[in-house]
Each structure stands twice: as C-alpha cells, then as structure tokens.
Amino acid sequence: MLKFETSFWDNPGHGHQPRYERGPQSLYEKLEQGSAECDELLSLFRERVAIEEAYASNLRKLSERQFAPQGFGRDEGATLKTAYGGLVAECLALAEAHSDMALELQSSVVMPLRSFSSEHRARVRASWKIMDDTIRRASMELSQVDRNHRVYTQKASAAEQMRLNETPTQSTHGAAAAEFEVKSRPSMGALSPADTPTVSSFSAESATHDIEDEADADVAAQRRLLAESGVGVQRMALPQVKGELDVASIALGNVALTRHEFHVVLQRMQAEIPQHDVKFGILGTFRSLISGESLAGWWCTNYPTVVRNEADSISVGQSLMGQGYLRLMGRGSQFQSRANAYYQWKKQALEFQSDDDGDSEDEQPLGNRHAHLSKALTYERAQREANEASQIYRDSVTRAEIVRTDLEEQLTNYLDTMEVWELNRLMNIKSTFGEYARINKLPVQAELSIGDRLEVYEESIKPQQDIQWAIEHYGTGRFTPRPIIFRPFGLSPAEYQIFGVALDEQLLVSHKDIPLFPVKALSLISKSSREMAPDDRYAVWTTRALLRNIHELRNTVNRGSRVTLKQLRSFDLSVVANTLVLYMLELPQPLCPEELHGPLRAIYSTRSEKSTTESFKTIKSLLSGISYAHLKTIQTLFATLSDQTRGGSANERDNFIKSVSKRLGP
C-alpha cells in the first residue's frame, strides 16, 4: 500500500542533488485542497439549514390559515370541513419536523464540521510553515557546499599550476597531484561553457588573483550561513570553519557567482535581452527597458540547471533589484515575470567592473600581469590556501550531510503526520455524511406519520353523507312541477289535456273506472316486461330517464283525452315509467292524501307487532275516505308493482320496493 512518507520525494537522477521542497509543496497543495473541500461542504450544509428554516417558517404560516366565512366557515357538520381542518393542522406538524431538522443539522453537522475545518487548516499551515523554513535553511546549506567545492577546486588548480611553473618535472607533477584530490562537481552557479572561466584559460597567477578578490565577501556569508542554519535536533557537533576563503561574492537567488562571473553575466544580459522604448504617461518615453518576462526567460534558457522554474527566475530578479542593479518602472518592490512589467538597468549595473577589468584599464599586457602576480604569490601560500579551502569544504560537507539526514528525518515524520491528518479529515467527512443521512431521515419519518393521518382524514370524507347534510341544511323543497291548465268556459280541462288535471275530471271525460294514461302505461309495462329477468324489470322503474325524453312522451299524449298503446310503444319502457311518475307528481292532489301519510307510515312501521289482518283492516279503513278514481288508480298501480317483483330474491325485492317508494312517496 502506498504511503505518504515514501511517495513525496524528488528523484532528479544520478549526479544531482534532490530539491526537497517539491514533494512537500505538492502535498501541501493537496492538503489545502482538502481544506477547500471542507469549506465547500460547509457552505452546502449551511444553505440546506437556511432552506429548511425557510420551509418550516412558511409551513407555520400556512398552518395559521383561518376558515373563510363563505367557505368552510359555514359548514359545521360536514365531513369535508373536518378533513380540511386536519389538513391545515398537519402543516404545523410538518413545520415542526423541518424546524427540528434544521436545528439538528446546525448542531450535529455544521458546527462540528466548521470547528474541525478551521483547526485542520490551522494545523496544516503551521506545520507547512515550519517545514518550509527548515527546507529553505537546508537548501542554503547544500548550496554553500557547492560554493565551497568550487572555491576549493579553483585554489587547488591554481596551486598545482603554480607548482608546475616553478618545477615543471614529471616527478614533481606526480607528487603535487597526489597532494590534492580535485573532484569535478557542477556548481549551482555554473555559467555556460562559452562564458565560464577555466583553469586552462588562466595562468596560476591569474587564478590566485581571482580567488583573493572573491574570498573576503563570500567567506563572511559562508560563516554566517553555517552559524544560522541549525535545522532540527543535531545529534553531533558540527565542525568549525577555519580560515578565510575567496568564495563567491555575489548571490542571485540560489545562484552564486564571483565578481568576474557576474560581470560576464551582466554583459550578456544587457546584450542579449530585448530592449524596449516604453511611454509612461506624462513622464515621457523611457528607452532601453527590459520586461520581467524576457529576463526570467533568459535565465531559464541559459542556466536551466540552477534556474529550473519560474520561481527560481523570480528569485534571481528579486536579488538583482535588492542589490541595486535593476529598477522597477512603476510602483512596488517585488519582481514580476510579466510582459507588462518593465525594468531599467541602474548605474551600478552599467558601470560594474571586476578586478580583472581594473587591470585591463591600466592596459597591462596579459603576460606582464600574470608575471606580476606570480612574483607576489609564492607556491607555499597557494598551497596553504588550498589546504584551508579543502578543510572548509570538508567541514561544510560533513555539516551538510548532518543537515540532510536530519531534514530527511523531519520530512519523514512530517509526511507521516500529514497522512494521519488527511486520513482523519476524510474519516470526519465520512462521519459527517453519515450524520447528514441520519438527520435527513427524521422528517421522512414525521412525514410518513403525517401521511398516515392524512389517509385517515381522506377516509373520513363521506361524499354521500355530505350531500345529504347539504340537502338537509340548504334544501328548499322537492321537485313538484305545476303544469299550466287550460280552463275553457263551460267545459272540462280534461277535454284538452290530461297532465295536471284531477283524476275525477278525467274519469268524467273518459267514462272509465281509471284514467286512460295510467291504465295504458301500466298495461304496456306489465305486458312488455313479463318475459324479462327480475333485474331488467326492476331497472324499468329504478332507471332515471332524461327529462327531455320524458317531456317528449308527455307532449305526445297530452293533446287530448285519448291515449293509445301505439303512442306509448314508440318510447322505451323506462321513459314510460318515468313519465307515469311525472304524471302523478303533476296531479293537483296526490294519489294518497297528505293527511294519511302519518297514519299509514305508523301502521307499516309497527305491523310486526300486530296481525296482518288487523293491519289490512286499518289500512282499508283509512283508504275508504279517498275518492273512487284515486282508489282505483292505487289498486292498479300496486297490482302492477306486485307483479313486477315476482321471481326475484327477497333482498333484491326489498331494495326495489324501497327505491320505488322513495320515487312515488312524499
């Protein structure tokens, strides 16, 4: 399984020192991404809390709705009003459920995640700051080793060259070569091959002259670095640096140069970097300016081994500004590698001269100058300085190795700690997701309970009961049509129409015992339904026909006193039965007078307590007081209805009698 402590290191290849900041920097960026992810989750949860609170508030307002005076406020006993009241009340219960969810999210998700996120970010940044400072100090220590190695190589080469000039014999050369072990190591401030001064291009006197000029300034920096670069816990005493050394005197970022090398680099930059004429408002046009992008690109192109990326080139540019060689044309003191950031070479850069240049100003021949230096420096002094440089170089290597091993130990601990912290962050987020899922179930459970109660409210609505309640409380009367009667002077209305005319008057015109329309209609229904099934016979009386069809039959037979079966057969039996019911409703006096309804209802409701004979006697006595036409019509109607009930089951017969009684009754 991959681990942090073995996965965030730089492997530059053989012969190159690793850049320790690359791996931790990549890991730090990933950890910062984790902090941003926590913030994103926190923002989501906060918005969800706000939505839940707003939803609960709106539901609470909805639960305060009052009955409208012209709506549910009027119906006190209707089942629909009761269900509506329950529906409004459940809005309050749902509001409380979502309000509780918002509180639970705030206390169990938002607050713990916010606290953890801030603490995690602070821990990561504090640890990275310490680690970054440690890496920077270690990098400076390793850079000092490169500078010491280069100075040592130069001094050893100069001493060897001087020895060869004094005693140019093979034996002497072998003995002197054995005294100095010179190993080639690439300098972090190495110039390109075209511009780098080598031992072969100088005589011994010239090399020693360069070393003396470089020693004073850079040895102080080397000693200060050795004194201040204590990294971590040092488990052994570091060697003390002795003597003074002509090390590189100019440092540009992580690039170390001698004065002569720096002079060559300055001349190349001024010659090779494109220059521009730029106008700055009322200040006018400034000539020979260079852009920050061109300067950074020049360093990355010409010295890729030491200036590896944009950050290194910015560091070099910042050093040029800080040491007074570059001026930013605009506000600010930070070097910027942008195309629109322009810089001007300052006088110090334009007039910079190395000690070698000073000698050339005196126009001394190169051979004479070398001869003069050879007279000033003896071979013993060069050898002594080479030995001192060797000791300083050896001590700095020992110290750098201690710093390197200590840094790697600290980096290992840092990476292992970061893995633990990142794992802890992921586990916390996972726990937060679980808590969020649990809280989301709370309103679901409440809504399920509310849904069960709403189903009860739905079942409590009785549409037929509410219809009857509305009829009882708001009804104005039954359907009782009142036809308009033509009453000619000296004649009976029955001569011209039969609907709405008293039965007695119809008998006077027809000279029959029963009015013609009831007799013909009952006869047609009885004959036509004789072969029908009981259900079909019942349907003839219980089916409600369209009033338009009923009126059509009524208008057909209501044109005189004569009614024929031919007229009735053209209509459906249910239409004939419904027209007969309308005929009875339009009578000026009902078949059974209203004063007999109460006594007859009482007899039928208590007939189980008396004998059937006594009940019939009582009914006969009550009906004896009505007219002959009414009595005969009732007898014919009941005989036909009794014939219609044959063959059916008792339950179906009872239902049929109740249905017909409701249609014909009061």
Task: Describe the fold and architecture.
- The chain has about 675 residues and is mainly α.
- About 65% of the residues lie in helices and about 5% in strands.
- It has 22 helices and 6 strands.
- The protein has helices spanning about 20-65, 80-165, 170-180, 205-230, 260-270, 290-300, 310-320, 345-350, 355-360, 365-375, 380-460, 465-475, 505-510, 515-530, 535-540, 545-555, 565-570, 575-585, 595-605, 610-625, 630-645, 650-665; strands at about 250, 255, 275-280, 285-290, 325-330, 340-345.
- The strands form 2 sheets. The protein has a 4-stranded antiparallel β-sheet with strand order 3-4-6-5.
- Helix 1 packs parallel to helix 11, helix 15 (about 535-540) crosses helix 18 (about 575-585) and helix 19 (about 595-605) runs antiparallel to helix 20.
- The longest helix has about 90 residues, at about 80-165.
- The radius of gyration is 59 Å and the shape is rod-shaped.
- The two termini are about 95 Å apart.
**Could you give the order of the helices and strands?**
HHHHEEHEEHHEEHHHHHHHHHHHHHHH
Counting helices, strands and paired strands, the structural category is mainly alpha
- State the helical fraction: 55-70%
**Regions with pLDDT < 50 over 5+ consecutive residues?**
168-248, 358-377
For the largest beta sheet, what order do the strands appear in spatially? 3-4-6-5
Query: Which of globular, elongated, flat, extended, rod-shaped describes the shape?
Result: rod-shaped
Largest sheet: 4 strands, antiparallel
Structure annotation, total helices:
22
**Kindly state the mean pLDDT as a whole number?**
78
Strand content: under 5%
Number of strands: 6
Q: How far is it from the N-terminal to the C-terminal residue, by CA? A: 94 Å
- The protein's oligomeric status is single chain
Radius of gyration: 59 Å
